[in-house]
Amino acid sequence: MPDLADVSAGTANATMQMTESGRWPTEASAALYERARRSITDGTSRDTLLRKGGHPIYVDHGEGAWVTDVDGNRYLDCNNNFASIIIGHADPTIAAAVQARMARGTAFSFPNDAEVDLAELLCGRVESFELIRFCNSGTEAVMAALKAARAYTGRPKVIKVKGAYHGTYDHAEASQSPNPTNWGDATAPSTVRYAAGTPASVEDEVGIISFNDAEGARAAIRRSGDQLAAVLLDVMPNRVGMPVIEPEFISAIRETTREVGALVVLDEVISFRLGYSGAQTLLGIDPDITTVAKIIGGGFPVGGVAGREGPMSTFARSGGSRAKVPSGGTFTANPVTMAAGLATMNQLDHAAFVRLDDMGEAVRSGLRSAISRAGVDWQVTGRGSLFKVHPHSRHIRNYRDAHLSSDEAAEIERFEHDIQAGGVYLSGGGFGCLSLAMTDDDIAHLLRAADAAWSS
Ligand SMILES: Cc1ncc(COP(=O)(O)O)c(C=O)c1O
């Protein structure tokens, strides 16, 4: 099988031939894209899979840390379906659990025992998870959490961080990618509606703060006062550059929300992969509600809202009347997703997180060495199994610092293209994510490909 790893390691692979243009073959992906565009807008149902100036790469299969595309090219997968795969592709333990469950049927209008098992596991791991409720995606989890916060407090407003991505719910996506022409004042950022057609009321209902601006957060929370339902926070937002969150920022949000009677909704859709009990335990945060998704579904569509009994009670029927926030969906907590989630989470013991942290450190420090060898003005941020490369050396505390000029955006695209040609698949924007299937050799492969990309 063609193996770009061998090529970048310097051992020429006889079965793999570059095309005359000096690129790896992509004809099969190109043909699928042509077909896809006739029936799917843009040729794919996911915006994030499109890359500038080319067609997406269509996958054939994945195994462990590697994916093979429909042209037979192999890549070390440092995207891992946007941080949702943590054990590796086609893990035999997860596959066995899923197959066993599928043999008993996949979707029912009855609750199932696997949902109870996964709920117990998650609530047993995180102190603030007194109750949990599942759904099918992180987007849905964030939407449900904000609805619960509004229902519990009886207030309409939320505050979120400029540049932070929380899925595609109207309020959550406000100001997720503003630019210098519309992001407003550094200390009082504007609310920018995201999708065309979003009701103008979102501008009144969503306040924006800058990441790590403790004073700005206190002022915004106090300004919203008794209208504020919640602050929505991700502790290491990718599009904000994955900066280190400052303790004063966390305490400003926690203290001032308590002062005005609002909640903290912690979005751990990605950051839950940072530790056995999530990022909140590592950072000493006490959220009222947490959203989870991605890894807890073991590669299947999933989301979850967990938290303190008070706000979680908004999802409960009381005395036969309907819940304040009715929730549920046709495939919610289906037994296959729940079984996959359990088979994943059961493998994520303390030792697994130590291994992920060690691999992440090796990657980040290896990339920093490659940057100094290449003499380029780049930097690396991240924590645990997550990393992000930036084509500049500005100190990153917030979205403004991380925001790329058009030249820098072109630089990162070139880097991603070059590292992909070296057999490593990253997410857009220089974001990378590791899985437990990766070996030390795989990490060496990643670092060689980065070296080559920076020196090309
Ligand atoms: C922090 C965060 N919140 C929410 C979401 C939305 O999750 P999903 O894609 O499962 O809807 C994402 C997705 O990447 C995310 O990164």
Q: Short summary of the structure?
A:
The chain has 456 residues and is of the alpha/beta class. The protein has 16 helices and 14 strands.
CATH topology call of the largest domain: Aspartate Aminotransferase, domain 2
General shape: globular
User: End-to-end distance, in Å?
Assistant: 26 Å
The assigned CATH architecture of the largest domain is 3-Layer(aba) Sandwich
Biggest pleated sheet: 7 strands, mixed
Mean pLDDT: 94
What low-confidence regions span 5 or more consecutive residues with pLDDT below 50? 1-16
Q: What is the string of helix and strand elements?
A: HHEEEHHHEHEHEHEHEHEEHHHEEHHEEH
Give, in spatial order, the strands making up the sheet with the most strands: 4-10-9-8-7-5-6
Small-molecule binders here are: pyridoxal-5'-phosphate
Question: In CATH, what is the homologous superfamily of the largest domain?
Answer: Type I PLP-dependent aspartate aminotransferase-like (Major domain)
Strand content: 5-15%
Radius of gyration over all CA atoms, rounded: 22 Å
Structural class: alpha/beta
Q: Which CATH C-level class of the largest domain is it? A: Alpha Beta
Number of helices: 16
